[in-house]
Amino acid sequence: MSQPDGPARTLNPLSPLIRLLRLPWRLRRPDLSQVRPTDPGRIDREKARVQARVIRDAFKGEIAAAGPEDRAVKDDADIRFFYRPGHALVQAERLEEVMEWFRGRGEDFRGEPERVEDPVADHLVVLRLPSRRDRGDDVLATVTELNDFFGRSDEDETPPVAAPDHLVYVTTLKPGFCPATEPEVPRSRRPWPPQQPDPIPAPDAKDKVRVAVVDTGLWMDAIDSAASPWLESDDVFADSTDEEHVNSAAIHPYAGHGTFVAGVISCLAPETRIEVEGALTLGGAIWESRIVRQLDEALGDNDHPQLISISAGTHTFGNLPALSFAMLGVKYRLAERDDVLVIAAAGNDASDDEFWPAAFPWAVSVGSVDPDKKVSDFSNYGKHWVKVYARGRNLVNAFPIGTYTCHEPPHAGVVRKFDGLAQWSGTSFSAPVVTGLVAAEMRASKTSPRAAWQAVEATAIDEHDARIHEDIRIVGPLT
Biased-composition ranges for Pro residues (predicted)? Predict the structure, then answer.
């Protein structure tokens, strides 16, 4: 990936698939006339329906959804995860066994599976599944039977043989959301967290920490602007195909998400090379296999990013580890390496269910706390998988200039005008706080990503949160 007259690249060119995931897309607004502003339960469920509709519209209906107990849903307010209809992910080394299983079950299916894409991270193949004669779900029922046959149990910690191709998204599908709020007009013209002074002496270009922000792309007008001078063209950039295009008269949902995340990192770790990747451009979402394909290309580069910040994820079928990310971790030994670290948002549905990729042991999973050190009411939590918390409530950073019309209750229809900054909440933004802290520590101590993370973790404040009945660890500024 190149940028004329700019900093040296950090990532390889992305898969051509990303070229298909371009905005704009249209959002059909539901009728919210019957939703009472004083009815939080109904508002939360309607918000879930609205956000689900954003994704459904973006994917033009070519998408499937599952709810509680991994069953089909009648109401989008009950969705746990989206998945790719008619397709499954299978471990490459078990492919022949899987194909033999289908041949032995020929009477149960209308045809045989078809391999449709090149391997993902060398260890994973994408299969188009035949339809089932029993009218069961082509993906969920078939994946269940495959894993049962090959001996995968809920207690087994190894990756499953087969899995749905989940949708990874910047917004969760239960009340709470990531972002937890729609962007708001800030009360201050200053960023939060505050902009830190440039290091003295400034590091040489070759010595700068390399960060990849895998998100919605970069709104280029924020770079070197008076509203966000911390986003400097020498350090924050994107390939032309990763630029985010915004209609100032009608800013689309999730616009500026990647720009905001990059701004948080830049404020905490100036003189850091931040490349923003436009992976989540279709309704703020992308298939799991496709985002992992892009990460595979990035990690395979000799000049690979040292820190990868991901403010997106998904719940999964059976709460099992997301198979694409699991295979990526195997290929690159992410649990063992010191030279690369993934930092990921824990998600925002106020749940202790694992959210992937944050829940992998090799990732630094970040939940959100409020300035009073309490876990934010939207944040996912869980002592068994959320490693650390940082403030994710009411951060202020770069946002497109223009008019945004709220589409979620209770503010649906409210018009907000932005002039380069926004206030936003969610674990989407607590994750880059940690990324910025680690990048700053790497620069100051001239140490590896893993060692820098351990140094940041050592600064954590220990608190007990009575609401979730857990002890938590908090890093970074709070007020």
Answer: 191-202
